[in-house]
Design brief:
The structure holds two protein chains of two kinds. Chain A is mainly beta. Chain A folds into two domains: about 70 residues, Immunoglobulin-like (Sandwich); about 675 residues, Beta Barrel (Maltoporin, Chain A), CATH 2.40.170.20. Helix content of chain A is about 5%, strand content about 50%. Chain B is mainly α. Chain B has three domains: about 220 residues, Alpha Horseshoe (Serine Threonine Protein Phosphatase 5, Tetratricopeptide repeat), CATH 1.25.40; about 130 residues, Alpha Horseshoe (Serine Threonine Protein Phosphatase 5, Tetratricopeptide repeat), CATH 1.25.40; about 80 residues, SusD-like (TPR-like). In chain B, about 60% of the residues are buried. Classes of the chains: A mainly beta, B mainly alpha. Chains A and B meet through strand 26, strand 27, strand 31, strand 32 and strand 34 of A and strand 1, helix 1, helix 2, helix 5 and helix 17 of B.
Chain lengths: ~950, ~500
């Protein structure tokens, strides 16, 4: 018998693991590692030692006489044993019955990601993440399986550590999820089909994203420091004419008066408003056992400029998690607090449009200008800027000061009590509060070029507050009978309230005046009961059924309860004896059906008779006084839940040691009683539209997901993830046609429509007639109804903005200490209406109203002379914007044990590396499909280091 | 916690029925809305919290729509903007989903609902003044229905707000309703009222207008009644103001013009703002070499001009012509045209402000030359007379000539009062032999242009759609051409027909 000593540490981090059980197999002999991971044990040659620790893969080692035996344990990577959060509980991945995708921190997109949504962009089939533009921390639009509603919210519900948060953000905040530091996120789980989401009932119509943050662990203290610095560069501009092109045009086509207006400067206005932007991001976290309690704490600080001059976001985040276990682990507490403080300086985005419009032959500055030295057009009659002339873009940037501060605190306490005398039953209470407030102000200098003779500057300011409170209580019963029947049941109650209070002030002076005050506030309450049963037989046959009952204060008392059931079954085919010992690791067939509701985004109190008082600018004069007027609001006493019914059939597969795995899903979602702005007979109500349940919609699609590990050796691993989703969206019933998608150029024009038989937000345009050379003929459109008049009735549906096919392909390579990750995406069949070309591409605007205005180079393609509204709505401007993008390339190098127990990883990353598209606008990815005054997404270079110790 | 589902508005600007009709003072705010809905577009001037949706707020303001439908469709005006549906108005080619014909229907239908709701709620008020309020609400409802008859003819008649889909009525039923309402409330309205609110004279005046059009609305001639009620108005305390210019200036609520105004839509550049109303009329008619400050605003929207057909109505008073022989000055001071750099003939309407004379009738400056309330020059103070005494003079004259009785000498003297004001002396006066129907139609043009009468007048004279009178670009042809007779009425909105199966579209659409 010999004595062996050694140290057990974690494979990935090299940190020692205390408390690892080591036993000699077949005996009762054993020991456990100490706090530093060390152990000592008496063994014989040939003994098999089993090292095991919860959450890690066990290792069996045959003892061959070593004096020192150091062991590394891998975290339990067997995906099937992975526990997935599913809402009011967890389930082993193997036992899932719905269409659920989980992305762990390891697989997140790298680089300085300010917006958590971006972490999973391109990673999940059927989930499209589109930023609103290139500003730092910009809002993100996540759409799961296509458009789910017409006028209500179309984005998923976010649940953070069991707390469904309010997506509505306060004014002055760029993205409601910015309060979470992405470094604090452990995993994101996407619930896609209704059998998975129905437990969230009325809030889950557009899918659910469950975010689990990193928690305290019962280990020795570990620290992690992440730091990165970035430079973002603008790399594309809107194609407007250069000074030379523009001069040539005016000289050729303009009158003598117009030619005389040309300047002799050469100013690329877009160069003047965009610049390289710098940023840095630092975060520090510590986790471990403090005084017997698992704790994790983190702080983060980000400072990021935008490429539009004067744009900046600086954000400080902090989080604390405490997970004490009391009463012999019968009472478990999970306390989370998360705070954010952001200071925004918003660049004046008006400059984006005016940089397109402003005459490139004019200088930026003019020593004689009465407008603070900024060049401006001057109306000879008034001596001021002509009212229809664009404002000097640089003056717009420099002379407007727009800032806000946003604070947010999200805290929740979850208490699990495992009953002492009935251990199958656990009672859980989750209490949370989410409080946001913001203050903002916008000062416009008295020097800004304006047509207003008496302009004295202006100041607007606002204060907004939002509070969301949560109280959940539920019981979980879990029991295994006769080793084959596994039974879990959950039943509970949930209460949530949402309040906001907004105040804003306008003043026509630069100092803080309170000339006009606007108030807005509202409160809604959501109350729910829910239950779910999971049953599995012999781990082969799985059944889940759930029911949620929701009541919303937004609906009238007689009809405010909605009942949302779901049922799903799955069959783990690989567990059948006939497939034992095959190369198949997993083959699961899933079928699920569920219903979900939606009233998110519906205005409050619409079933009540209520009167809106007029603001100070809309009083009415009687005699010598002005009276506040009271207007009865449109009423709809019959508002009901919008209900989505989804059928999903899926297969999960894995074979060859899970080196090939993935899933296929086919779904059909029918949404009934779609709430939309519905026309009403004005003689029956107040107004001409009310939000009402009027339509039906259908989404159908197929999703396919493949994870591939072509190479996996000690030193070299290469993995690939590919996903593709096809989605088709159609409005199947809508009594009236609706016009949406307001565009600029003219007044009140729209380019999109909702109409039965077509996709929502389809483009509604005139069919351009082209000559034999393929050049559009000005003013010639196809008379589609053959009535010899070209009017609204000749417009037709020409594509829609949402992609028919979205794909993501990402790959990770690691070779020894090097790692490389590439993330790419493609969209096919997404169309854009190019509103920049349409409003700025006709010759007449180059010289009218006594000023010169730059043109979009689309003019060279069309030769259009005159702006008309029919021309504005020509299908010439609806363009295929299919694209392939390389979003991110990251190269990293890890330095193990540089110091004692310290690991460094250095990395360099490029974001927005490449865009391949036929679309000739700024960026083919414009959410909503109308490209105008788009804030360009920069290319960003990152250098960073992660230090774990 | 179930009780917590019963949430009530927390917004300090949101009120319940109990708040609004708690007492007569609060109810006055609800009454103010009935008037405001003909002037403003929503609860947050100039825009935001709009009363109707789906269309630009400013572009769907009542008097702006009245201008679009009753002036822009005629020889009085063209507009250079190409916004969807706008060029169709002067071209007389609008479709049944034209934004502006729809918006007017919505706004008037809504006004009827606002009034119906007010009338039923105010009935519970005990204060005696409530009866006056109710009579005013009935007047406003009658005014809305007068417009509905004029524009659409076949609309539902409702007197209560109910979600039940209403049945369609026709012009005769609607006419009888408006007539009987006005007859009933003439004694319930105040003898005289504060500025901005109507009194009994307004009921008489609207009856005068209604009866004048009775033949074209219903086929039944009621010129005698027109004479009677015109006489009532003429005998009232309202008086023709001495100076025509003053009627359309920023302080027309106080410069004396108010004595001629029987019913107004009120605006203020600070406290009562909209992108419609006079803000629209003034900005939109400025362009070319015009100085916007001369009209008291900060810039021109380069839209509205007039055709030579209107200018030619002033032929007999031309005092100067330019090198091309086109008139540039008139002794009739109602001819308020800006001619410098503006072509007399229109060759192009779209985006060519300099084709056609500009009109400077409405201005946002005070009669003493001082600036209006909005120092930025964005929003106008100038009120719009919806009914003014001069119209009633012309109604009397026309009804008398059409055989409604009355005295033709009185008619001539009434017309001459207007012409004497216009010329500043008696040089423009006419004699009884001049008083033909054609003369009266032309005189209405001269006196009332751009005030929302022209289409109705042309229809009464059977000249709107027919070939008997052509103007530039009538029917879309530069020399003008006739169009189908069904265009005498506007279509009901397609979307309303889809949701209310009781309604049938007007013929032709």
């Amino acid at each position: 018998q010999q004595t062996v000593t050694g140290k057990v540490s974690e494979e990935a981090s090299n940190l020692p693991i205390p408390g690892v059980n080591i036993i000699v197999k077949g005996t009762t002999t054993g020991t456990a590692t100490d706090f530093d991971g060390n152990y000592t044990l008496s063994v014989r040659n040939g003994d098999i030692l089993e090292f095991s620790y919860l959450g890690y893969m066990s290792k069996d080692i045959t003892y061959t006489g070593q004096g020192i035996l150091n062991i590394k344990l891998m975290e339990n990577a067997s995906e099937l044993d992975e526990v997935v959060v599913i809402g009011y509980g967890t389930v082993k991945k193997e036992d899932l019955t719905g269409a659920v995708d989980m992305v762990n921190a390891d697989d997140f997109n790298e680089g300085p990601v300010l917006s958590p949504q971006q972490l999973i962009s391109g990673k999940v089939a059927g989930v499209s993440v589109t930023s609103g533009g290139g500003a730092p921390g910009e809002g993100q639009n996540i759409i799961i399986r296509g458009q789910g509603s017409l006028s209500l919210e179309r984005t998923p519900l976010y649940v953070i550590d069991g707390f469904p948060i309010d997506k509505g953000s306060v004014g002055g905040s760029r993205n409601p999820l910015n309060f979470i530091n992405p470094n604090d996120i452990e995993s994101m789980v996407v619930l896609k089909d209704a059998s998975a989401t129905a437990i969230y009932g009325s809030r889950a119509a557009n899918g659910v994203i469950l975010i689990t943050t990193k928690k305290g662990k019962d280990t020795g203290f570990k620290f992690s420091l992440n730091s990165s610095t970035t430079i973002s560069t603008p790399f594309n501009q809107v194609d407007v004419m250069s000074a030379d092109q523009f001069s040539a045009l005016i000289n050729e086509t303009g009158s003598a008066e117009n030619i005389a207006l040309l300047g002799n400067a050469n100013t690329n206005w877009q160069d003047q408003i965009y610049t390289n932007a710098y940023g840095s991001d630092h975060s520090f976290s510590a986790l471990g056992n403090a005084f017997g309690v698992p704790v994790r704490a983190s702080i983060g600080y980000t400072d990021q400029d935008g490429i539009l001059k004067n744009d900046n976001l600086s954000r400080t985040t902090g989080s604390l998690n405490i997970k004490p276990s009391l009463l012999d682990d019968h009472l478990k507490l999970d306390l989370n607090a998360r705070g954010m403080y952001t200071e925004n300086t918003f660049a004046n985005r008006d400059a984006i449009g005016s940089a397109i419009d402003f005459d490139p032959t004019k200088p930026i500055y003019d020593a004689n200008s009465k407008y603070g030295g900024y060049y401006s057009w001057i109306d000879p009659n008034t001596g001021n800027r002509p009212s229809l002339a664009p404002t000097n873009p640089v003056a717009l940037i420099d002379l407007v000061d727009d800032t806000s501060e946003v604070r947010r605190l999200v805290a929740n306490a979850k208490v699990d009590y495992n009953l002492h005398f009935f251990e199958d039953l656990t009672a859980t209470v989750n209490i949370g509060i989410d409080k946001q407030n913001s203050h903002g102000r916008k000062l416009t200098s008295d020097l800004i070029p304006t047509a207003d003779e008496t302009w004295n500057g202006s100041k607007t300011s606002f204060t907004q507050e939002a509070t969301n409170k949560l109280f959940d209580a539920y019981l979980t019963y879990q029991k295994e009978f006769e080793e084959v029947h596994n039974f879990t049941a959950v039943a509970g109650y949930s209460y949530q309230s949402f309040e906001f209070n907004n105040t804003s002030f306008d003043s026509e002076k630069e100092e803080d005046g309170l000339e006009f005050e606007f108030l807005d506030s509202s409160k809604s309450v959501l109350l729910s009961y829910f239950g779910r049963v999971n049953y599995s037989y012999n781990e082969k046959y799985l059944l889940t059924a759930s029911l949620r009952a929701d009541a919303s204060s937004k609906l009238n008392p007689d009809d405010r309860w909605g009942y949302f059931p779901s049922v799903a079954a799955a069959w783990n085919i690989h567990k059948e004896s006939f497939l034992e010992n095959s190369a198949l690791n997993e083959l699961k067939l899933r079928v699920g059906y569920g219903e979900v509701g939606n009233v998110n985004g519906l205005n409050d109190y619409q079933f009540l008779t209520r009167y809106d008082g007029s603001q100070a600018t809309a009083g009415y004069q009687f005699g010598n006084g002005y009276y506040q007027t009271y207007r009865p609001s449109p009423i709809n006493e019959n508002l009901r839940w919008e209900v989505g019914q989804t059928l999903n059939i899926g297969i999960d597969y894995a074979f060859l040691d899970r080196r090939i795995s993935g899933s296929v899903n086919v779904y059909s979602k029918k949404t009934k009683d779609l709430i939309s702005n519905s026309f009403i007979d004005p003689f029956t109500n107040f107004g001409n539209q009310i939000e009402a349940n009027i339509g039906d919609m259908e989404n159908k699609g197929i999703e396919f997901n493949l994870n591939l590990i072509p190479v996996r050796t000690e030193d070299f691993e290469w993995s690939l993830n590919y996903n593709i989703a096809l989605n088709d969206n159609e409005i199947t019933n809508l009594p009236d046609q609706q016009f949406v998608g307001g565009i600029s150029g003219g007044t009140g024009n729209t380019v999109q429509t909702h109409i039965k038989g077509e996709a929502p937000f389809s483009f509604l345009v005139f069919e351009q007639v082209y000559d034999s050379n393929g050049r559009p003929i000005e003013g010639a459109y196809v008379d589609r109804n053959n009535d010899n008049v070209i009017n609204e009735e000749d417009k037709y549906i020409n594509h829609d903005p949402y992609a028919d096919v979205i794909m993501g392909l990402s790959t990770n390579l690691s070779y020894k200490k090097w790692d490389l990750a590439v993330v790419t995406r493609a969209n096919i069949g997404n169309y854009i209406y190019d509103n920049v070309a349409s409003r700025a591409g006709t010759l007449n605007r180059a010289a009218e109203n006594g000023i010169l205005t730059n043109l979009h180079t689309d003019y060279y393609e069309t030769g259009f002379q005159k702006f008309t509204d029919n021309g504005l709505l020509s299908d010439h401007y609806v363009k295929d914007a299919s694209f392939f993008k390389i979003d991110n390339i990251t190269l990293g190098y890890t330095l193990d044990q540089a110091f004692k127990n310290t690991t460094f990883r250095f990395y360099g990353s490029v974001q927005n590396v490449l865009i391949a598209t036929d679309y000739d606008g700024l960026d083919p990815e414009v959410y909503g499909g109308i490209d105008n005054n788009f804030y360009p997404r920069p290319r960003t270079y990152v250098l960073g280091v992660n230090i774990d110790f | 916690c179930h009780d917590d589902l019963d949430q009530f508005p927390t917004d300090p600007d949101s009120f319940t029925e109990q708040d609004v009709f708690a007492n007569i003072d609060e109810a006055k705010g609800a009454l103010a809305k009935l008037y405001a809905s003909l002037a403003l577009t929503g609860q947050q001037g100039p825009a935001g919290q709009g009363d109707i949706s789906g269309i630009d707020e400013g572009a769907s303001q009542y008097t702006r729509l009245l201008f679009y439908l009753n002036e822009l469709t005629t020889d009085h005006s063209v507009v250079g903007w190409g916004d969807a549906g706008v060029p169709d108005l002067h071209n007389l080619t609008w479709s049944s989903s034209n934004d502006f014909t729809e918006a007017m229907y919505y706004r008037l239908g809504q006004e009827v609902s606002f009034c119906n709701s007010f009338i039923s709620n105010a009935t519970n008020l005990t204060d005696p003044e409530a009866q006056t309020f109710i009579a005013e609400a009935r007047f406003l409802r009658a005014y809305a229905y007068y417009n509905l008859i004029d524009l659409y003819a076949n609309v539902p008649l409702t007197t209560i707000v109910s979600t039940e889909l209403p049945l369609q009525s026709d012009s005769s039923e609607l006419f009888s309703f408006v007539e009987s309402e006005l007859l009933e409330i003439q004694d319930l309205l105040a003898d005289s009222n504060e500025y901005g609110r109507v009194d009994k004279v307004a009921a008489w005046a609207l009856l005068s207008r209604l009866y004048l059009n009775s033949e074209s609305f219903t086929g039944v001639d009621k010129y005698a009644e027109c004479v009677t009620f015109s006489n009532n108005v003429i005998g009232s305390s309202y008086a023709i103001h001495s100076n025509y210019d003053d009627l359309f200036l920023a302080d027309n609520n106080s410069n004396g013009a108010q004595n001629e105004f029987i019913f107004t839509a009120n605006f203020d550049g600070v406290q009562s703002t909209t992108y419609g109303g006079t803000t629209f009329l003034i900005h939109a008619s400025i362009g070319g070499t015009m100085d916007p400050f001369a009209s008291g605003v900060n810039g021109g929207w380069q839209g509205l001009r007039t055709t030579k057909a209107l200018v030619n109505k002033f032929d007999s008073s031309v005092t100067a012509r330019n090198g091309n022989g086109n008139p540039i000055s008139w002794s009739d001071n109602r001819a308020m045209f800006y001619t410098d750099g503006q072509a007399f003939e229109i060759t192009t309407i779209a985006n060519t402000f300099t084709d056609g004379y500009a009109v400077t009738k409405f201005k946002n400056i005070n009669s003493d030359g001082s600036g209006a309330n909005d120092s930025s020059g964005e929003f106008a103070d100038t009120d719009i007379p919806l009914i003014r005494l001069a119209e009633i003079y012309l109604n009397y004259a026309e009804a008398a000539v059409r055989g409604g009785g009355g005295d033709l000498n009185t008619a001539v003297s009434l017309v001459n009062q207007l012409r004497a004001r216009a010329y500043g002396n008696n040089s423009g006066n006419i004699s009884i032999s001049d008083l033909s129907l054609d003369f009266i139609l032309n005189e209405r043009s001269r006196e009332l242009y751009w005030e929302g009468f022209r289409r109705t007048d042309l229809i009464r004279f059977n000249q709107f759609t027919t070939g008997s009178y052509l103007w530039p670009f009538k029917g879309g042809a530069s020399q003008g051409k006739s169009v189908e007779a069904y265009r005498d009425l506007f279509p009901l909105p397609t979307n309303v027909i889809l949701i209310n199966p009781n309604l049938e579209q007007n013929p032709g659409y």
